[in-house]
Every structure is written in C-alpha cells, then in structure tokens.
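Morning F.,

Quick status update on the modeling queue. The single chain you submitted on Monday has been processed. Sequence for confirmation:
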Amino acid sequence: MIWVLMCVLISLSVADEVDTDLEHSRTIYVTENGPRLSVLSQQAKVVSQRGGNATLPCTIQRDQAMPPNRKMRIKWTKLTSDYLKEVDVFVAMDYHKRSYGRFYGRVHLQGSSPLDASLVITDITLEDYGRYKCEVIDGLEDGTTVVSLDLQGVLFPYSPRLGRYNLNFYEAERACRDQDAVVASFDQLYDAWRGGLDWCNAGWLSDGSVQYPITNPREPCGGKNTMPGVRNYGLREKEKNHFDVFCFTSNYKGRFYYLIQPSKLTYEEAVGACLNDGAEIAKVGQMYAAWKLLGYDRCDAGWLADGSVRYPISRPRRRCSPTEAAVRFSGFPDKKHKLYGVYCFKCQY
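Structure tokens below.
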C-alpha cells in the first residue's frame, strides 16, 4: 500500500513538471489583418505655374472599426532636391494648424471631408517646385504618400560675363536668382533635352550634379559615336568646382517689352530709359519666359540687366535666326557702346 502511494505521488510530480515545461514553451500565433490606416494620392504629379495655385491630393483611408481620434496628426513636408532632408510645410491636429517658413500664410488643407488631407498652395513661387510628403499619424497607425509639384516654364543655360566655367554652385544659385530664375532640376533638364535642347557646356543642377544635354553627338561633346542623352559628370564639390549653370523660370506677373527709342543706347542709358518709362531693365529669365511661354518675337538686339545683349525669335526667318526659334545671344559687349536697344520689364502687383 505504501509502495502504491509513493508511485502515485511520483506520477503527479512528473506530470506537474511536464505541464510547467509546456507552459513555458507555449507558442502564440498572431494573425495580421494589414494596416488599419493608409494614405493615398490620386495623382503622382500636379502641374501649375508661378503665381498660380495647386492642390496636392492626399486621402486618408481608415478602418471603420477605429474609434474617432481628434488627435490625428497631418503633416506635410517638402523633400530637398538631394532627398537627404525634409523641410516643414504644414501641420494640423484637430483645430491646431500651422504653416512654416516661406510657406507661411500660403498653404492650408482642402478639408472637403474629415479624410481629406490634400494641401492647397497659393501664389506659387519657383522654389515651390519639387516633391512633397503627406504623413498621417493616428495613434499607433501611420501612413505616407509623395506628390510632385511641377511648373510650366523654360530652362536656359547661363554663364556670366567672366565666361565659361566660372561659377561654383553657390555662385550659380545667385546667378539664376539675379536672372529671375532658380537652378534647374535634373527632371527639368531631361524634359528640355527631350524637347530638343543641345548644349555642349556642362552646368550645375539643383542636386549638386553637373550635366549637359546632347541631341547631336559630336567629338567635342562626348564623342560623335556616342548615343544622344544627358551627359553626367556626377556630384561635384560645390565650393571648389566651377561650371556654367542651367536655370529655370516660369510665368511672370508683368509686361516684357522692347522700348522704342530714337537712337541706340549705352548700357547706362538703357537702364535709365526703362526707369523713365516706369519699368526696369529686363532680366535674362524674363526674356526666356516671354519667348517660350508667350511666343514673344523681336529681331532687335537689346541690353538686359546682366549687361548681355540678346533678342528672342519665335518665328525663324532670314537675318533673324533662320534655322531655329531661339533666344539669340550677342555676348557681353562694352557697356559704353551705343549699338543696341533695350528690353524692359514692368511689374504688375
């Protein structure tokens, strides 16, 4: 009897140890039903122009089983051209809304419904071009989407009076700004190449790379046995390396025109003539915008603000760019020469 009782106690003890081991090695299976919140954009790209408005679409899709959350956070940022940083644009949480930096007072949510996170940008500037990220955070759930804002406009190569390959990156930025433009992006250069731009001088782009577009391969421009394309020198040191620059400009609010004068002018006389007409001497970017976007055509060489002499031809003809529509460049002549007219620009506010 004692022996039987001892066997029973030993059996219970072993069973208890087995149960304990099973308890510690239990496997738990979790079923994942997918995200309860997602963020979508109906358009990957929105096209506008300088001075216009644009709506960057962003729609929230939310599991109906999730309880309402007044603390859901919507944040818009702008990606830098090298994609290494994000610049704050707009943040909203319930009734609290804030716009940042140069976007202050120019951006707001469309808000057509509680799930509409679309961003409206007004009075668009050249610097607004680029890619924007819409991020929504709802408790532990979050989602993002990216939308591009493209601008109608024109790209043009630029070098200063000093001549070819004299600009580091920061000087190139300033040179474009001085001509009512910004440093162009690779996408803008690529579009211009597809449109027929052929230029054998390498220039800075906004991402810090140096490239140039070739539609007619030839020996001094990468070799005549190479394929047409955008030639790429890669990323260069922004302070040490010197090249030309590709600038980009868009529509303007104002009037670009050739000022009729009784005689030809020196540069200083040209500046004064525009001022006397209630205007200012025009910039290179304004001439390109008038030529490309408005079809401006004038076969008279005239001074521009940077001291260069140019004239825009949209209808090629004998003695006026007979082979192609283009902005013709006559160089940087001595500013004391009385050989040219002047192009003026009058702002409209």
